[in-house]
Amino acid sequence: MQDTWLDADQTAQSLHITKATLYKLIRKGRVPATKVHGKWRFARESIEELFESSTEWPSAEKTSP
């Protein structure tokens, strides 16, 4: 059985982004997260839904072509 909650390392790895980008997305409200004992936790189901439903991955920073 898979864990229900992911930590920041696992979440960043699952989304193929850096932890710094993950934290930016949390601050912008683009990634659902909860703090538990001072550490960010992410519901596996929410992260999977976010990744699967997003046709354009929510970027923390805009990049120019």
Descriptive notes:
The protein is 42% helix and 15% strand. The chain has three helices and three strands, in the order βααββα. Strand 2 and strand 3 (39-43) form a beta hairpin. With 65 residues, the chain is an alpha+beta fold. It is globular, with a radius of gyration of 12 Å. It has a three-stranded antiparallel β-sheet.
Give me a quick take on this structure:
With 65 residues, this protein is of the alpha+beta class. It is 42% helix and 15% strand.
Properties at a glance:
single chain; 65 residues; alpha+beta; Multidrug-efflux Transporter Regulator, Chain: A, Domain 2; 3-stranded antiparallel sheet; globular
Determine Rg (CA atoms, Å).
Answer: 12 Å
CATH architecture: Orthogonal Bundle
Q: What overall form do the CA principal axes indicate?
A: globular
Q: State the CATH topology.
A: Multidrug-efflux Transporter Regulator, Chain: A, Domain 2
What's the CATH C level? Answer: Mainly Alpha
Residue ranges: pLDDT <50 for 5 or more in a row?
none
Q: How many helices does DSSP assign?
A: 3
The main sheet comes to: 3 strands, antiparallel
Strand content: 15-25%
Secondary-structure element string? EHHEEH
As laid out across the biggest beta sheet, the strand order is: 1-3-2
